[in-house]
Design goal:
Elements (H helix, E strand, L loop, with lengths): L13 H35 L15 H12 L5 H8 L5 H9 L16
Helix pairs in contact: 2-4, 3-4
Length: 118
């Protein structure tokens, strides 16, 4: 299996797709294991550097803005979106971090849950 995922497949050939799925599932599992190992190394390096471990998320959800503000304030230095994403954890999205970095601090989502239009 190529590790760069550059393979050709006819997207209209369901049989070929089904045959490729186990191969891709194996790759996904390998990458998840690799990610777990990298996260453990990252935690160890933070420990050796004398940095506080990432805080465990509370059961009470916080907004992305509050989370990003806490991360930047805790770091005590300017941060790029990709730096913030690393601190937010494996499920974080770069677009969310970038948006939260530049959102007004008094931003309130509209009652219907959509951002932007009132």
């Amino acid at each position: 299996m190529p590790k760069d995922l550059s393979f050709e497949i006819d997207v209209f050939d369901k049989k070929a797709i089904r045959e490729k799925l186990p191969e891709l599932q194996t790759l996904v599992e390998e990458k998840r294991k690799e990610l777990t190992e990298l996260e453990e190394r990252y935690r160890q390096l933070r420990h050796w550097a004398g940095l506080a471990p990432r805080s465990v998320k509370s059961s009470q959800p916080t907004s992305s803005i509050e989370e990003v503000v806490g991360i930047v304030e805790g770091a005590g230095r300017p941060m790029r979106a990709r730096d913030v994403v690393v601190e937010m954890g494996p499920d974080a999205k770069r677009d969310t971090a970038a948006w939260a970095l530049y959102a007004p601090l008094d931003y309130q989502p509209s009652p219907n849950g959509s951002a932007g239009e009132d």
